[in-house]
Design a protein that fits this description.
Blueprint lengths: L8 E6 L20 E2 L6 H12 L4 E6 L7 H4 L4 H15 L3 E5 L2 H7 L3 E4 L8 H10 L4 E6 L3 H8 L5 E5 L7 H12 L4 E4 L4 H10 L3 E5 L3 E2 L8 H16 L1
Parallel strand pairs: 1-3, 1-9, 3-4, 4-5, 5-6, 6-7, 7-8, 8-9
Antiparallel strand pairs: 2-10
């Protein structure tokens, strides 16, 4: 038998319009290109929906995106949105799934999230990575987006992050998978395949050696993006694991 290969896992991205109470409203481009299609009306409905999602064993992480222009996250400790955020964090964690916030590492530390993902352009001051680590602590999860170049990936990999995300983009459809393959062969820091549009992309990411597949939650879509069947993708991951390990 060959070398044992760990099973690739799902990394679920929850939309920036947190709380499911903005149904039908298109998010501004400054926040996220996604928009909601489904909006459970009550807290109990939301809990049931998330319980159903989290029953998929292959989901190991949930990343909560946040609106960029929502001061309530930090300044109003008792805001309803913040309470909903904390409730979702606890619900996710109760299922032994990691709950991460995007970019807002101070809020992640305040609510007891498991970590933070930094979506930074290469032009950004990477000193923020050290700032985030100091705030969330050494045991928390810290992820970072790679801008699509080997140079940036190597710089990012030296900054003490726990994983890197490699984004598929419109300019270079295959570049993400080529970079993923190169990274997986040479480095031990786990990789996340990000911004996938079709089921075929999932297969390409698996073939390239991605440890995690990032997919949007079922309540939001992007232009030109397939509405993924998370159950079917989870089965694909199980089948691949069995094939590779006998």
């Amino acid at each position: 038998m060959g070398e044992f290969v760990d099973k690739c896992e799902l990394y679920l991205i929850s939309s920036a319009q947190f709380g499911f109470n903005f149904a039908g409203e298109t998010v501004t481009p400054q926040q996220t290109p996604r928009e909601f299609e489904l909006s459970p009306d009550s807290e109990s409905d939301r809990q049931l929906v998330w319980d159903d999602l989290l029953s998929i064993d292959e989901i190991s992480s949930v990343l909560q995106q946040l609106p960029l222009d929502a001061p309530a996250w930090d300044k109003t400790e008792n805001s309803s949105l913040r309470r909903e955020l904390v409730a979702l964090c606890r619900q996710v964690q109760s299922r032994k799934v990691a709950f991460l916030l995007e970019n807002n590492f101070r809020l992640a530390a305040e609510i007891g999230a498991d970590g933070v993902h930094l979506s930074l352009p290469m032009s950004a001051d990477l000193a923020i990575v050290d700032d985030a680590r100091n705030v969330i602590g050494q045991s928390a999860i810290l992820g970072l987006t790679v801008d699509g170049t080997k140079h940036h990936a190597m710089i990012a990999g030296e900054m003490g992050v726990d994983y890197l995300s490699f984004n598929k983009d419109d300019k270079n459809h295959n570049g993400c998978f080529e970079l993923l393959s190169w990274w997986s062969e040479l480095f031990e820091i786990p990789s996340v395949a990000w911004n996938l549009e079709h089921s075929q992309d999932v297969q390409l990411a698996l073939s390239a050696g991605a440890e995690f597949i990032a997919l949007p939650d079922p309540f939001c879509t992007r232009p030109h993006q397939e509405k993924f069947d998370l159950g079917a993708i989870a089965q694909l991951l199980r089948d691949q694991f069995q094939e590779q390990n006998g």
